[in-house]
Amino acid sequence: MDDTRRALLEDLLATASPSGFETPSQRVWTDYVGEFADDVSTDAYGNAVAVHEGDPDAPTIAVTGHADEIGFIVRDVLDDGFLRIGRIGGSDRTVSKGQHVTVHADEPVHGVIGQTAIHLRDEADDEYQDIAGQFVDVGATDAAEAREHVSIGDPVTFSTGVSELVGDRIAARGVDNRAGTWAAAEGLRRAAAADVDATVYAVSTVQEEVGLQGARMVGVDLEAVDAFVAVDVTHATDNPDVETAHRGPVELGAGPVISRGSANHPVLVDLARDAAADADIDVQLQAAGTRTGTDADAFYTARGGVPSLTVSIPNRYMHTPVEVIDTTDLDAVADLCAAIAAAASDVTSFAVDV
Question: pTM value?
Fold first, then answer.
């Protein structure tokens, strides 16, 4: 990954984007794709779309990622100046206490999610408290002082940044799924540079973590799209504390993950696997027997049914402040998206042969 691409990734990861508050991250994304896309647009809720216009007779492919991340929201200001919080998306109550956070008010406010010292707790009674029972300490001495800085409804995110690990691996908050929006943007750039015949859309959706809402909007709005490729993260289960029942074939550093089953259209699965083989990209396979848990679940039922596929980036410790990915996997996902776009013109039909 060259310096320009790495700078985009770090900018996206540094920009807080909790569900419903994605605008700053979408600005970073649209500024980048605007340098090479034929057109860039946004809708009323901030879904962002960029396009490379190809041959009108060739297929139209959309490569997507979701811009939003999990987080918290200020739901009350207590008399003593502490903030009660609620969930935005699937925030994990087991990792939140004792963390630095940022309240994204009119001006950022730093705080911590309080954790009573071990000396003052009965360890025998230790349990993970629900998010609704946890609180943020911003240093205010009473409610009046707290309200000078924050308001009900302000979003809150962990304050962790990007950390370089050994080799090509990084740890960061919000890899799920700004890594996917990075791959969508880069897939479009690489497809445009190759001047593929297909018309290619790159899409950065909003509010995936709260019910695939942005994808539902985009699936209806992009009427010309023949197929969607949803790029998201998936669980790398190669760390030692994953129980045997949850272990799977996905490993960090072993390449993009192509899902099979449920929403994943068999023609697109074959197209992706063949494109990967032709481009010499190592891929991993993952079963999705019921649902993918990604925007593909919304895309594939849009407009009476649109062929869709999930391509994933292996990710350790999902929905924590320390998600870990291998950037070689991420780079390969962008290459695979471009390869799928290039090979799409060879597909005579995206429908199954019944």
Answer: 0.96
